[in-house]
Amino acid sequence: MIPAVPARKTRGKFITIEGLDGCGKSTQLGRLASVLRADGVKVLETREPGGTPVGEKIRAVLLDSRTSGLSPRSEMALMFGARAQHVDEVILPALAEGAWVLCDRFTDSTEAYQGGGRKLGSEPVLALHKLLCHDLQPDMTVLMLSDVEASVARARRRNLARVPSVAPATEAQPNDENRFEQENRAFFQRVATAYKAIAKREPKRVFAVDARRAPDVVHQEIVAEVRRRLVGKKAASF
After folding, report:
1. pLDDT per position as a tens digit, 38-78
2. What is the residue-wise DSSP string for 82-133?
3. What CATH class does 14-231 carry?
4. What are the b/e assignments for 42-72, b being 16+ CB within 10 Å?
5. Which of 1, 81, 112, 126 is deepest in the core (most CB within 10 A)?
6. Domain range list for the chain
7. What SS3 state is found at 218?
8. What is the pLDDT of residues 128-182, one digit of tens each?
9. In 163-184, which residue ranges form alpha helices assigned H by DSSP?
10. Can you tell me the distance from the alpha carbon of 72 to that of 93, in angstroms, rounded to the nearest whole number?
């Protein structure tokens, strides 16, 4: 008897969520993950920078307000160091096992923050992504469009509340994550402009949603679009 050939696993889907800090990305990612799990989908939630033990250590360097002296190119290199490890260690293996990977930020963030905000341009970002990250592209990206001042103010409040500014950083009391929030309005306007340029360049991948509205409304639109693009199902329930 010829042994049965095991069925090949279907590759999972890769969804990223982007936008300014404080726009509600993490909340919407978690709610989308819950809906997909209820639909019977195996879901992995992750984030950048971070997502691996090495990546989380790099995150502490990148986001701590005490590392404000990083040069723009060093900052971009560290972002890609964390990302390359994340792709190889977490994202690609999970996709190969058929899981849907939901990631809070990916290379679009680097193109927006370092390419746009730091004025390094898109070209080096895209070149490094191709070289270091297998040119992995999300199946869908949700771009949360928000008011710059409101989002940044919310992110500052959240991050400052997370760690008392007078306490030294330890493993139990991690570094603060306010380094980017200390940038000026012009920086964040450049970031927002870069995000919009990415959405215009890649409309088949990027779904831009107005995040200034009630979270429930934003959630429903995201779920409906994910089902339309990646599942082929109408959003019957949330």
Report:
1. 999 999 999 999 999 999 999 999 988 788 889 999 999 99
2. HHHHHIIIIIHHHHHTTPEEEEE--HHHHIIIIIIITS--HHHHHHHHHHHS
3. alpha beta
4. ebbbbbbbbbbeebeebbbbbbbbeeeeeee
5. 112
6. 14-231
7. helix
8. 999 999 999 999 999 999 988 776 777 667 666 655 443 444 443 455 667 776 7
9. none
10. 31
